[in-house]
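[09:14] KT: can someone run the structure on this one? pasting the chain below
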Amino acid sequence: MFMTPQEVADLTGYQKPSKQIAWLTAERFGFVVGGDGHPKVLRDVVLSRLGAVKSSKKEPQLRLTG
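[09:31] RB: done, structure tokens below
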């Protein structure tokens, strides 16, 4: 669900939470700040922002022949 702290650091290029928050804000990535002061970023937010497309599961389809 949420990116790991290391993934957030890799995304932003910063280790310090205040710098990560500034970068995320400037780049308009949605996040919340946890009680520990670190930004919490949903993995889906980053994936969709970077153009990833969720693959939909193929469900069985009912074919009616008459």
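[09:33] KT: thanks! The first helix runs from residue 5 to 12.
[09:34] RB: yep, looked fine to me
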